[in-house]
Amino acid sequence: MSEKTDLNAISHDLHAVRQEKLAQLRAAGEDPYRAEWSQTHVAAECPALLPEGVEEGPEVSVAGRIVALRVMGKASFVKILDRSGVQQCYFTRDALLERYDTHFKKLVDLGDFVGVRGRLFRTKTGEVTVRATEYKLVSKALRPLPEKWAGLADPEQVYRQRYLDLVVNEESRQRLVTRSRVIESIRKFFWSRQFVEVETPALHAVAGGAAARPFVTHFNALDCDFYLRIALELHLKRCLVGGMDRVFEIGRVFRNEGLSRRHNPEFTMLEAYQAYSDYRGMMELVRSMIQTICREVLGTTTVNRADGGTIELGGEWREAKYKDLILERTGDPQWFSRSKEEKIAACRTLGLEEPRADWEDYEVTNEVFGKLIEPTLIQPTFVTHIPKELCPLAKVTVGDDSTIDVFELCINGQEIAPAYSEQNDPGVQRQMLQLQAGAETQKIDEDFLLALEHGMPPAGGLGVGIDRLVILLTGAANIRDTILFPTLRPEAGA
Question: Rounded CA gap, 393 and 208, in Å?
Answer without folding.
Answer: 11
